[in-house]
Design brief:
The complex is a heterodimer. By secondary structure, chain A is α/β, with parallel strands linked by helices. Chain A contains 10 helices and 11 strands. In chain A, helix 3 packs across helix 4 and helix 3 runs parallel beside helix 6. Chain B is elongated. Chain B is mainly α. Chain B has 7 helices and no strands. The chains are: A alpha/beta, B mainly alpha.
Chain lengths: 261, 232
């Protein structure tokens, strides 16, 4: 049983999976998932370990493609365009759909170069446009005031919380339409987590955010919509206001209230 | 939601069970307070002042304790879905139950004053009927909560209409008597206040039942009217 009551106009959908199934070798990790991610909103994907939430997230910008034995069925579209089609080369897809991982992964270079890294690939790695974008990205993650005068310092010297915000700045510097976040604050302390969640709030509206999290309270705090996955299947997708107060599916209720399923 | 599996965290499960049991125990005290007040009102048997005030203290303490337990559960467990609704429901229920206790105490006080007053059989009968009705409503409200039964809650909510109608009739009778026999106005006023308190208790029982429906069905039926409530 799936409850998927959220309905959007086609023009309000950023990403969409239709009857999506995914296998790694003989193991099926996603089972017939149809999900519409609304534009400019924060959508959380929750579920137990092994429920397929990270695999689903990676489908959205084709990060599973390089995994041996990977096989996919169904369709994924970005703004209505098939992400596997010829109209959307994978490097373009990944510029438009950025990713932030569980552990901060700054590159072993300076703070400034980290943020400018993606811009270089776009051919704007130098000059005033580059400087302006680096500054804007660092400002939008609240790092400019902290490290604006030390752009040449090594990124590895920052605290974990700062590193994760730096990675976020690197991701948003190339102005993506969608940001995929896989457990982005699980390595952070509670205060850095709250600061990170504030950023997510602030970015929503301009950027569509898809957030995979183990933390039910985090999903409840930051998301507009929530999808609950179990064993690779979509159990329920609804407005977070409704899902966390009155889930329709018994399986969702069991998961949210911490009961034996 | 009463068919849900046990919590993985046995601590949370036992904390929620405990606070539920405490609500039912508080409900028992409130019901005793009401029954004692009605005995005084209908049979003229005066209950001891210390018994009433002891019970009142227990009810007030339960109100405070249960609220504190709920705050602890919210702060430490961050309950969601039906667990969250249970905690929110209980916090609202204890407020209404505490007020039912206050009204019962008031009725008890009025009953003491009315013991030796000159008879007015028709209003006494009406008050007895009202009292019996609201006592049943209270018992059924607590029962609906204990069994998580929205059907029973709806039945109680319907009964509140009958209580309101009886209250209006009693009011008319008392007013007529006041006009007829002005010297009896002080006594009749006490009867009127008692009737008013009983009617209020009916209202509080209705509130309890609205919370039960929210708890079970997740729909807030306050201020929606019985027709819409029944459709939930």
């Amino acid at each position: 049983m799936t409850t998927n009551t959220a309905r959007f106009d086609a023009s309000d959908i950023a990403l969409q999976s239709t009857a999506l199934s995914l296998w790694f070798g003989a193991r099926q990790v996603i089972d017939d998932v149809s999900l519409s991610i609304p534009k400019g909103q924060v959508t959380a994907i929750i579920g137990a370990s092994g429920s397929g939430k990270s695999s689903l997230l990676c489908c959205f910008n084709r990060l599973n493609d390089d995994i041996d034995g990977h096989r996919m069925q169904g369709r994924i579209t970005l703004d209505g365009i098939d992400v596997h089609g010829n109209d959307l080369p994978v490097h373009e897809l990944r510029r438009r759909v950025g990713m932030v991982f569980q552990r901060p992964n700054p590159f072993p270079m300076s703070i400034g170069d980290n943020v400018a890294f993606g811009l270089r690939l776009l051919g704007i790695g130098k000059g005033s446009e580059c400087d302006g974008r680096v500054e804007a990205a660092l400002k939008s993650v609240g790092l400019w005031a902290e490290v604006g005068d030390q752009l040449a310092a090594p990124a590895m010297r920052l605290s974990l919380g700062q590193q994760q915000r730096l990675v976020l700045a690197r991701a948003i510097a190339v102005e993506p339409e969608v940001l995929l976040m896989d457990e982005p604050s699980s390595a952070l302390d509670p205060l850095s987590t709250l600061r990170f969640e504030e950023l997510v709030h602030g970015l929503a509206g301009q950027i569509t955010i898809v957030l995979v999290t183990h933390n039910i309270q985090q999903a409840a705090r930051v998301s507009d919509y929530t999808a609950y996955l179990q064993s690779g299947r979509l159990v329920e997708f609804d407005r977070s206001d409704d899902l966390f107060n009155q889930p329709t599916e018994r399986l969702t209720e069991d998961y949210l209230t911490g009961r034996y399923a | 939601m009463n068919r849900l599996s046990p919590h993985i965290s046995r601590h949370l499960g036992s904390e929620l069970d405990e606070v539920r049991q405490n609500v039912l125990a508080m409900g028992g005290l409130v019901e005793e307070q009401l029954v004692a007040a009605l005995r005084g009102l209908v049979n003229g048997s005066v209950s001891s002042a210390s018994e009433v005030s002891n019970r009142e203290a227990l009810i007030n303490a339960a109100d405070v304790d249960i609220d504190a337990q709920c705050a602890q559960i919210i702060a430490r467990r961050q309950p969601a879905a039906s667990d969250l609704r249970l905690v929110l429901t209980i916090m609202k229920m204890v407020g209404d139950m505490e007020r039912i206790g206050d009204e019962a105490k008031r009725i008890g006080r009025l009953a003491d004053k009315l013991v030796d007053s000159e008879g007015a059989d028709d209003t006494s009968v009406a008050l007895a009927g009202l009292g019996e009705n609201v006592r049943d409503m209270l018992r059924s409200s607590l029962d609906a909560f204990a069994r998580l039964d929205p059907e029973e809650a709806l039945v109680v909510m319907r009964r509140d209409r009958a209580v309101d109608a009886t209250y209006r009739e009693t009011l008319a009778t008392i007013t007529a008597r006041m006009q007829e026999l002005p010297e009896r106005i002080p006594t009749e006023l006490d009867r009127l206040w008692a009737a008013r308190s009983l009617e209020r208790i009916g209202d509080h029982c209705k509130n309890l039942c609205e919370y039960v429906i929210y708890l079970v069905n997740g729909k807030d039926v306050r201020h929606t009217g019985l027709g819409k409530t029944a459709a939930v």
